[in-house]
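Subject: complex prediction, re-run

Hi both,

The earlier run crashed halfway through, so I resubmitted it with identical inputs.
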Amino acid sequence: MTAEKMALAKAINESLRTALDADPKVLIMGEDVGKLGGVFRVTDGLQKDFGEDRVIDTPLAESGIVGTAIGLALRGYRPVVEIQFDGFVFPAYDQIVTQLAKMHARALGKIKLPVVIRIPYGGGIGAVEHHSESPEALFAHVAGLKVVSPSNAGDAYWMMQQAIHSDDPVIFFEPKRRYWDKSEVNREAIPSPLHKARVVREGTDLTLAAYGPMVKVCQEAAAAAQEEGKSLEVLDLRSMSPIDFDAVQASVEKTRRLVVVHEAPVFLGTGAEIAARITERSFYHLEAPVLRVGGYHAPYPPARLEDEYLPGLDRVLDAVDRSLAY
Amino acid sequence: MTVESTAARKPRRSAGTKRTAAKKSPGARPDLVQLLTPEGKRVKNGEYDAYVADITPEELRGLYRDMVLTRRFDAEATSLQRQGELGLWASLLGQEAAQIGSGRATREDDYVFPTYREHGVAWCRGVDPANLLGMFRGVNNGGWDPNSNNFHLYTIVIGSQTLHATGYAMGVAKDGADSAVIAYFGDGASSQGDVAESFTFSAVYNAPVVFFCQNNQWAISEPTERQTRVPLYQRAQGYGFPGVRVDGNDVLACLAVTKWALERARRGEGPTLVEAYTYRMGAHTTSDDPTKYRADEEREAWEAKDPIQRLRTYLEASNHADEGFFAELEAESEALGKRVREVVRAMPDPDRFAIFENAYADGHALVDEERAQFAAYQASFADEGEGIQR
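This time it finished cleanly. Structure:
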């Protein structure tokens, strides 16, 4: 079978379907995931095909969803739970941080917690409050969790398979504004490892590192910069915990300049960690300080202001210019 | 039926009148399941007698032995904390009947989700008491394989485990197994959202789980009346499953009621809330000072309802145990204390690389990197030490 083109949301749907088909222990749980197919229709049709026992509509209680998923995992199931929106994960944050992340270590490795928590995240769809946040750094900071985010359909299909197969809890951030973007999904490809970054565009003058929704913005920025004679390399990190620092380092030691781009607030964010590590690893290779482009230290703004808040082409290119000016 | 709410019992406030908690003797209440009175008299109960009808004198002596040894283990751990061998201890003193009665009601294939004070339940599940001491000594954060005795790790965050129990029970039902799950928590935990959510989930999915609330009257310094305005067992009604209040100092009643609830669960009739009405005679933990918030008379009143003395009176009056039994048990109790002391003192500090062990099941690049840095740092001391020696 050759590659087929599909939207990112559909790719995740297909991936979940594949997992449900392959392993009777895989369960889907969440609010509205059944008949409705999720508010973004990511689980569309799954309950119809696999039944209410495998695709479970839950009470409206996030801590309950994650807490019971932990119990199901202890019983040998592999639950994939959906948190409806990024800003709604916090009632479950306690269960994720104090229980899910630590239980394997507390049991001296005797039990495993193969729970995947899917979170549609990020802005750009004109949503109301609590529907556009990027809390990935809060999860990446917690030992015991793995945190990933695909940027395209092909990756989304395989990364979801890998997350479900992982014996560790995985927080799977889905870039909701890319749900409808289509790209190729090759179900017979040998996928790259879950936590490996990928060069999506080669370049020589500067590295743009991003993940999830910002990869596309960076690709557009690189295309625009090309017209000005600048050659930018674009790196899709794919994973925020662990971060593939080797890949970032390799790219930076080629281009000597690094700009990290994400929607989440810059302060104490993923970009801060990358800037610090790359400064440690590649200090003598850098021609400019590592720069960050991202959200502000402010609540995510109302929809009419989100274009000001979100990194766009101009803010990315501005950072590129600042870096190249050193 | 009239609902006797805490609010109704609250005395009116008036200037100059010291507010005191009006407490009725729980034994006098019709809503309290009791099979052994505080005076050690066996009383009939039409509904629950059947669950202990076939209990033998030997089994009764077994329950007594469990309670005595658990209390001894607990006392030893408290002493060891005072001697600096444990960083902290959460004593179960006074709650032996609630824990042994409910713990002995479980079947081997049932699964237990404890909070951090269930030393008696752990005893019933065959968990080596020494395993319970590791986290209090600071050599691990849990320390046992939950699946070896179907006894989950202690959970410090209040109420979290009730959801794990519910999820596990949902899994049991999916598997078509006829085992049941029991979740322990306290009156303080009943205020937590997770407990409410576990009630909702277990009711909605008809999960085979028993919620065993040990209402020991105090959540550190906060009395039960700061947690609820209605008797806790009555909460179950709002979720659509039965709630029962049992005399938590009556081991026989706790055994009977828990058996009933577990059997309901096995039959696919869903969750039950059991409120074991008991008393924490000691401090919340060894860091706590209950003299700051509760009266001596209160403890004295509860000491008269001591669960161990109660069963002893019954065993003696019914000629189910003789002096020889009690003397033998005393010797066994001494031996247990000695063993616990020795085990704790011999418990080694963990290997320093344990910091990085089991952070992840599948490994993690950052952990690998930091472990290597840590190893290099440790190795640098070894070189230094050698240098000094030379």
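Chain B has 14 helices and eight strands.

- K.
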